[in-house]
Amino acid sequence: xxxxxxxxxxxxxxxxxxxxxxxxxxxxxxxxxxxxxxxxxxxxxxxxxxxxxxxxxxxxxxxxxxxxxxxxxxxxxxxxxxxxxxxxxxxxxxxxxxxxxxxxxxxxxxxxxxxxxxxxxxxxxxxxxxxxxxxxxxxxxxxxxxxxxxxxxxxxxxxxxxxxxxxxxxxxxxxxxxxxxxxxxxxxxxxxxxxxxxxxxxxxxxxxxxxxxxxxxxxxxxxxxxxxxxxxxxxxxxxxxxxxxxxxxxxxxxxxxxxxxxxxxxxxxxxxxxxxxxxxxxxxxxxxxxxxxxxxxxxxxxxxxxxxxxxxxxxxxxxxxxxxxxxxxxxxxxxxxxxxxxxxxxxxxxxxxxxxxxxxxxxxxxxxxxxxxxxxxxxxxxxxxxxxxxxxxxxxxxxxxxxxxxxxxxxxxxxxxxxxxxxxxxxxxxxxxxxxxxx
Length: 439
What we know:
Layout: H1 2-15, H2 37-41, E1 49-56, E2 67-71, E3 76-80, E4 86-91, E5 96-102, E6 114-116, E7 122-126, E8 134-136, E9 141-143, H3 147-150, E10 155-162, E11 167-175, H4 182-194, E12 202-211, H5 215-225, E13 235-243, E14 246-253, H6 257-267, H7 271-279, H8 281-286, E15 288-290, E16 301-303, E17 309-311, H9 312-316, E18 321-327, H10 332-336, H11 338-350, E19 354-363, H12 369-378, E20 384-387, H13 391-394, E21 402-407, E22 417-418, H14 423-437
Parallel strand pairs: 1-7, 18-19, 19-20
Antiparallel strand pairs: 1-4, 2-3, 2-5, 5-6, 8-9, 9-15, 10-11, 11-12, 12-14, 13-14, 16-17, 18-21, 21-22
């Protein structure tokens, strides 16, 4: 009886579609199909995103040709900025580091590490320009030490002189002394003034002569008005660049083999470096920048310390001569001479002249409270302005302070006064400027 009952129960279970032997239930039309084993292990694809790196100069202008490196924890890729100063990398969302590997000529590289983190998708990098070794806006010429010159073991000194009223010369002079040994350098320079015994320890690498004339006139003017001590036949002369009303020539002494033996003895361990630098004209030329000379006018538009627009022509118009004093809030000599300049302004005013200041580390739209505080403490009441927008072109600077003497139309009348000096120096410069006006 019991056996019969079990068989009936088994039959009923089979009719219901169930397994009587401990197996799984068979699928019905309402059950989901079993997941594929391979599909369970397949990862969901995460989309790539774009990371944008923008490189500009200190005025916000894009810099193309900058090689940047884009890295995660395991690998790096590189790319160059385009004409818009932008490099774009496509990668999974995450944290990345960026390094600047190479920059175009005229800009300083940086070892700083930049980072994308979280949801950041864009990054800005600002590159600085090198501080000029020589910068003279009256000549329209600047020279920046190439990297090779920074890493040499000898010493290069720069000399900048006016040789006619239309021509200026920049000399790069190599001294066979270690550049960190300032005592030996000063001793050698001093000895040269009194003796020729050490001449073979010092030689000129290159000279650049800037002539404030067009290319068509410059070389004829040079040959007619400048006579080198050893004659032009012992020099190489090559035109290397021009800007508006400015032509530059590269000049180098022809070094006979008979001189090289004594030169090698005099320079010793520095001789090979000197010869290498002397033959590497491309590196030297890479440091040269030419721009329109500042001799024509000093005219531009800027703002006063209260944010009012000021045109220099209006400022200069009612005065015979204006002393334009370029200074900065971080410059101690600049600030120290301010009270003297305030007293000097009274003397200038009595002669129909004036002083104005231009603070170069502040520009239009910036808070000038710090500038006002400095001027107030010094008792300065003469007009002060902020730097014009394109001050690097209009007012290239090496020395702080620098003062120009200009007429009512902005024409520069005398050589710039580079540095802070006693009042007597500025008074003398004013006399020269007034004399220039009278012809």
